[in-house]
Amino acid sequence: FANITNLPRDVPIANQSIKSIKSIKMRMFTPTILVLSLTQALAFTSRTSSAFMGKNRDVAHRQFTSSSSSSLCMKTIAVFGASGLTASECVYQALKNGDTVIGMTRNVDKMVIPQGSGGAEAGKPLTDPNLTMIAGDVTKVEDVAKVFENDIDGVVVSLGGKTSDVGDTMLTDGTKNIMDAMKSKGVKKISVVTSIGAGDSKDQAPFFFKILMATAMKKIFNDKNNQEEVVMNSGLDYCIVRPGGLTVEPPTGVINVIEGEAGSIARADVAQFCLDAITVEDFPYIGKAPCISSVGGTSWVKDRSKAARGEM
């Protein structure tokens, strides 16, 4: 994977720090987040994830830098498909940040503490006074509307599921319903998790994965491609997040935005990027579809120290 040059110093941004050439301090307020997660269909097996580690030569990368000293003051974050492996990380991390979360999923009984960030508590039921769970189907307008009965400030969409279970167009139809509801309520910020290989990132997928995209995963990638297209044409402040091979490892805080072949990345790190996309004002990838990986480099590093959290 790409070798990324270490940058001179950490720049604190609320609970995170960014390795950056320019020292830019951003003040973040406690956001509220709703996470929509249906990414289970694209969850790679450990074999797939390890294969993503493959070649790491000749891979271009971009360092994240911010040009603003302000951040959004969020109140509530919505997460759809919240019980999914990546979305549950969004829910968990948002709650730990003190945010209010409204999650929608088909089966609320599956809402558990995620393996990556949850440590010894992983697998236990995830409950919190700031968490509201709604059982629903994103393809049903009336279910999606229940989420927006609350004042939502930002949305994370991380949908998944086998097409044999959820249908061939669930990602596109569900995302359209969510965005329509957002527009009716004046909500602008949305991050949408798709996959490496979707849209114009086909050449960034490893060879073996390209074969799957054209065969066993053809239907879901047709849906992902259409999903990305409707998001790009939505007029919202979107960030389409295309992760490499997904793992359930603990968060590394290292997220590289890459232009070459993707490596692997922990779902916990993907979740951090998704939350940053809807909480950090002037986030540099709004209106874009970055491919992200944690292999090599330090382009987007979260400072998890007590000092960064204002506890020292």
Break the fold down into its secondary structure elements and pairings.
Elements: E1 9-13, E2 16-20, E3 34-37, H1 46-51, E4 61-62, E5 76-80, H2 85-96, E6 100-105, H3 115-118, E7 131-135, H4 141-147, E8 154-158, H5 163-166, H6 170-185, E9 189-193, H7 207-214, H8 218-232, E10 237-243, E11 245-247, E12 256-258, E13 264-266, H9 267-279, E14 291-293
Parallel strand pairs: 3-5, 3-8, 5-8, 6-7, 8-9, 9-10, 10-14, 11-13
Antiparallel strand pairs: 1-2, 4-12, 12-14
Please give a structural write-up.
The protein is built from 9 helices and 14 strands. With 312 residues, it is α/β, with parallel strands linked by helices. Strands 3, 4, 5, 8, 9, 10, 12 and 14 form an 8-stranded mixed sheet that branches. A two-stranded antiparallel ribbon has the order 1-2. Strands 6-7 form a two-stranded parallel sheet. Helix 2 (85-96) packs across helix 9 and helix 6 runs parallel beside helix 8. It is globular, with a radius of gyration of 18 Å. The relative contact order is 0.21.
